[in-house]
Design a protein that fits this description.
By secondary structure, the chain is mainly alpha-helical. It has 16 helices and no strands. The radius of gyration is 20 Å and the shape is globular. It is found in: Membrane. It is a multi-pass membrane protein.
Length: about 375
Amino acid sequence: MHGAGHILEVFYLILAAQVMAFLFKRLNQPVVIGEVLAGILVGPALLGWVHEGEILEFIAELGAIFLLFMVGLETRLRDILAVGKEAFLVAVLGVAFPFLGGYLFGLQIGFATLPSLFLGTALVATSVGITARVLQELGVLSRPYARIILGAAVIDDVLGLIVLAVVNGVAKTGQVETGAILQLILLSVAFVGLAVALSPLFARLPLEKLPVGSPVGFALALGIGMAALAASIGLAPIVGAFLGGMLLSEVREKYRLEEPVFAIESFLAPLFFAMVGVRLELAALISPATLVAGTVVTVIAILGKVLGGFLGSLTQGVRSALTVGVGMAPRGEVGLIVAALGLAAGAVNEEEYAIVLFMVVFTTLFAPFALKPLIAWTEKGLRQAKE
């Protein structure tokens, strides 16, 4: 009956996510918000029908992998490289501003140095899955501002990983392990560089002649393989999945890869967002101290990314730059992982963990609500510029 219980939990998640997605479509709101709220509804916070567990976590991670693989399929490398300078600036500034803001605020309210460092680190990495879903839903993945967000998210993940490695090393050993960090940087750069170097080869690759069952089967194996490779060097699996999809973007139409991959993503991605809701411990957010400190940290988290995104992509115009900044705002599961690592290492306590949790909840909910009208405003400006 153990397997039957997990199947029932998946059923609850799918049903709740689909019903909430329908309601949010009717309300003309981002579907992803409905899917996150569906997880809160059926999770421990309310009905208690679904609980965290290894199997559901794995299925949810597959959802994130296929979402970013699908986004990668729709994103050509040359389009990312065309906005490479802006993407790099957005990533660097979007890491520096929130980290400094979080660290200094932690010191200001009486945290010790190490908890303050973990607080700053939790504000660093963008959870691009939330933003990617909104961009996909609105059909604007081909826009320059969307490509800047996606490119910056890859660089952001590498930078965030380096910051986390430094802070985690300090928490465990009391010193910065330069050799391990240098190795991490070299592996990350080599991984991304390899994907870029292989892109022209994949554009000419005759998939029908490979010793595989079908081109779609090869595409799925590549996406999962790249995600696994990214995870093995410490990067987020979704970065590998995105790069894998991008490798096949030039041949997606020739081999009709989008429709079957989209079918899988349409099933798994809502489970990922619903599990974001299941993980949220809402009871931890009700203490007055958490509410006040969490609100300030959330403002720092949002303003840091918006300012970094805006300044880094101002060459694209004010509207597009604001869209980039807001698109980089959600922290999602990335912030939770950082906070959980700090808790496990004894570097943060339950109160400090709850503050990060508060920030994660509200940046996750803020971005889709803010992005939809902002993208409409940006698109209107782009149309007016053409006329």
